[in-house]
């Protein structure tokens, strides 16, 4: 498995939101869209 960590920017946020986990893992984590919105309002 390859892992790449980078800053979410105005240029790449749509790609970040499009990332998803396997269906059987979705119960363990929020979507990237939710996490990005949460980070704006809850710091």
Automatic annotation (TrEMBL):
InterPro entries: Sper_AcTfrase_N (IPR027455). It comes from the Bacteria. Gene3D superfamilies: The crystal structure of the spermine/spermidine acetyltransferase from enterococcus faecali (1.10.287.900). This is GNAT family N-acetyltransferase. It comes from Bacillus cereus. The lineage of its organism: Bacteria, Bacillati, Bacillota, Bacilli, Bacillales.
